[in-house]
Amino acid sequence: MDLLTSNPIASLAAVTTAAAYLDAKFCFSRDLREIRQGRDFGRRLGQRIQQLGDVCSMYGIFDKYRGKDGDDAIWFEGRTISYGELKRDVDRLAGLLHARGVAAGDFVAVFTSNSPEMAIVILAISKLGAVAALINTNLRHTTLAHSLNICTPVLIISTPDLAAHIDSNVPHLTLNLSSFDGTATTTTSTITPIGPGDLKAASFTSLPPAKRTLSDGALLIYTSGTTGLPKACFIKNMQLCLTSTPVPADHDNRAKYFPLRTYSPLPLFHGTAIFGGLTYSVGNGGTLCLARKFSASNYFKDATLSRANCVLYIGELCRYLLASSPSPYDRAHAITRAYGNGLRGDIWDPFKTRFGINEIREFYRSTEGLAKFDNFGDGAWGAGKLGFAGPLRRWFENMTFIVKFDTDTQLPIRDPKTGFCVKIRPGEEGEVIGRVVNRATMSNYLRDDGATEKKLIRDVFEKGDLFQRMGDLVVLERDGWVRFHDRIGDTFRWKGENVSAGEVRDHISAIQGVLDAIVFGIKLASYDGQAGAACIVLKSQDPSARESFIRSLHSNLVFKGVPSYAIPRLVRITDSPLLA
């Protein structure tokens, strides 16, 4: 008689061993857990939307889920602002803006440095149902003017350190509630300083929050496209509801992860900071521990003094921290997890080990994107990866897919027999796409239907379906892990920002004396992303003209408004025609 049929215990052991082997090989249990968590998250999101009712907005989220009046809402440079104080100042500023004519649907340009003032401005604008256009504070001159012109704001709000860079006839408030004491305040015919006394005089008690739906606009976040000047991503309230809902890891272990205190030196005009910082904090009664700007030497000191238990990062930031000198604050903090994107495999474990952070929460998203991957865990096997997609996850997945890509046509490959796109197999690379379920709640490019349409692809797996292209090539490894491979088109990423090579090339080509130019990103050892490189042909081959051009190139680009992260780090002047 067969041993397994005569010995039930041996039979059970064999089945258990086989099941364990199959699970280790195909990660069924991980896939099942993530599928369950995804469904649970969907239910909680639906409940949140119901609870918000007809005030689906940043202010609505803040008002509904904020902490108690005495709880810390914001920590900034050693001082705290309670939820009671934050709501008072938000409501007062909303009253002041309302008196100046700001109404639902209007755009208000926000050109402010990281500070409590910036958070107050964003929430006050939201209370009125207006849209905060979060302008990158690195922009100057042409690109700054372009960003303002896109949104045609009814009002500009700045902080005193930045006000002088705005050259516009639009009414302009500069706000300082104490974070910019000592900074000279600019006053002109169009610029009006606002201080604590002005807020105290503002009427706010009878002003209700504007009614807003999931498809109404919430924010503008500016990003570089594949060509041209910065594009304004029109973020809908649906995205704020999504990013304020507790993620499964937090919801399933509230005793460990709450109350939430998130430290971030990332600028609030950046998607990671506005969604993972401000929105997630106010949506869960947490504390946003905000730094004015990033400092490698002060990062963990601030995180320790603010009692943060979560930090935000982008990959380049982690590399700078590892390159900094050892500090007594490196492990004096209470951080349990780091949340962000772009942490590369070569520094993943060194970062965790040196700073004693057990859990890395790597996510893959774009500001306007629908597709996503998450790599939440504490194991070394996923170091540097975007996320995991085992066979069960791929079988049940309905939103995020990876399809084969043609590098010659720069388009997804279609099966010649069916006309539909082809999903990649393990071991292959392809482009990430995300299903569009509702065009009304999907983020789009403001007043640029062509750019929005260019990112969409139809009839992908069946007639009538609609997907959004992410513009990234990734590899689905044979063990199910997904890793980033490259950007599609002429954009490259440097210092946490997407840079349009075409835009930088156009600026260089417009400089007097330039015959031709090409710009591209190049990978440098020990740096994340790609540094900008430029090859330039001058009209004159005179050595003195070449020397003069090189000396003035940086200042010319700064004058044209090219942000510092987009200025090429490597420049070659050549006599040869540029054929690529």
Automatic annotation (TrEMBL):
<dbReference type="GO" id="GO:0044539">
    <property type="term" value="P:long-chain fatty acid import into cell"/>
</dbReference>
<dbReference type="GO" id="GO:0004467">
    <property type="term" value="F:long-chain fatty acid-CoA ligase activity"/>
</dbReference>
<dbReference type="InterPro" id="IPR000873">
    <property type="entry name" value="AMP-dep_synth/lig_dom"/>
</dbReference>
<keyword id="KW-0436">Ligase</keyword>
<dbReference type="InterPro" id="IPR042099">
    <property type="entry name" value="ANL_N_sf"/>
</dbReference>
<dbReference type="InterPro" id="IPR020845">
    <property type="entry name" value="AMP-binding_CS"/>
</dbReference>
<dbReference type="GO" id="GO:0009898">
    <property type="term" value="C:cytoplasmic side of plasma membrane"/>
</dbReference>
<dbReference type="Pfam" id="PF00501">
    <property type="entry name" value="AMP-binding"/>
</dbReference>
<dbReference type="InterPro" id="IPR045851">
    <property type="entry name" value="AMP-bd_C_sf"/>
</dbReference>
<comment type="similarity">
    <text>Belongs to the ATP-dependent AMP-binding enzyme family.</text>
</comment>
<dbReference type="GO" id="GO:0005324">
    <property type="term" value="F:long-chain fatty acid transmembrane transporter activity"/>
</dbReference>
<dbReference type="GO" id="GO:0005811">
    <property type="term" value="C:lipid droplet"/>
</dbReference>
<feature type="domain" description="AMP-dependent synthetase/ligase">
    <location>
        <begin position="70"/>
        <end position="435"/>
    </location>
</feature>
<protein>
    <recommendedName>
        <fullName>AMP-dependent synthetase/ligase domain-containing protein</fullName>
    </recommendedName>
</protein>
<dbReference type="GO" id="GO:0005777">
    <property type="term" value="C:peroxisome"/>
</dbReference>
